[in-house]
Amino acid sequence: MKILVTGGAGYIGTHTCVELLEAGHEVIVIDNLYNANEQALHNVELITGKKLQFYNGDIADETVLQRIFEEHTIDCCIHFAGLKAVGESVVKPLEYYDNNISGTLCLMRVMGKYQVKNMIFSSSAAVYGNPAFVPITEECPKGICTNPYGWTKSMIEQILMDIYRADPSWNILLLRYFNPIGAHKSGMIGENPNGIPNNLMPYITQVAAGMRDHLGIFGNDYDTPDGTCIRDYIHVMDLARGHVKALEKIQKKDGLAIYNLGTGTGCSVLDVVRNFEQATGVKIAYTFEPRRAGDIAACYCDPSKAERELGWKAECDILEMCADAWKWQQSHPNGFADVQ
Ligand code: NAD
Ligand code: UD1
Question: What is the end-to-end Cα distance of the chain in Å, rounded?
């Protein structure tokens, strides 16, 4: 199939492009490089030995989207493009609603105009808010999000559901990711956060590399076995493979469906630290800090619907996730600014 990947130069996008190319799909990427580096796409080509086509543009720019749809017969869009920094979204809500929602509206309009009605959307476990129960199934009601970023995901899901209701010839998959970490085995692509990382794994790898003094663990008084928060960490390559399986599903033209993409295994912050130490042999200094606003005690999924209906299951364990994240950190301490 010919796939338009929005935000394809980013963290999950590049790993998914590798899997798409290796599965024999043709890949067209649109990315405005707001949070990415074009070198990442060159590395995707080096890893796979295959070419993709890149458009440096914004999904809110109808002209560039129309050019893409005129120049290519697209079969399906995988829509990663969006702003994703939770803390920043609290400070800059307008930018987040504008970029994520207006961008998606523009994309959907142009797709509809060119009769390309197959869409796979990057949603998030954030839509469950503080989940009504764990493990979270897709039947779990959506909740109250704790920040504008989460609301953009929840609102875009609603918009896509309404578009489907109005025109059931669309095929739409809403993929709710849990906590993607790790990197491609080659160490040539990975997560490249700007400034001080907000997320756990890039913070740990920077402590391991000596770039930060120690990890602050946010809260050790949660109602969990060791008092630290529990999440469902998933290897980014497993997540990438989930998108290839989602494409097979889209071809069946079954309408709209929602899938949790996680491992189903909850890991506490201390579990991650210990597994990182075991996988790499590097000690992680940490202190306990107060809870972080908006954090919830436990968030992990029941991924069995994806296994039943997509034939997909996460395969990598937490040790492998840690080892691969560390390999990427060591080979690219300054991200894509480093010589390849
Ligand atoms: P990322 O920031 O690495 O990738 C997003 C890409 O989109 C970037 O390359 C950025 O330059 C591009 N982009 C942003 N706005 C754009 C626009 N208007 N036009 C064109 N390009 C634009 O993030 P990621 O971690 O790869 O996440 C990909 C998607 O998955 C996002 O939608 C994110 O919200 C979602 N998601 C991520 C996580 C996570 O933990 N990483 C969890 C759940 C959901
Ligand atoms: C965060 C976002 C979520 C988003 C997801 C993916 C919040 C509240 N949630 O999820 O909306 O979808 O990222 O981008 O920001 N931790 C520490 N010390 C650190 C960093 C993190 O102890 O320096 C802890 C956190 O308290 C949490 C766990 O590690 O318990 C994971 O944190 P993080 O990687 O930021 O992911 P989430 O908070 O689960």
Answer: 30
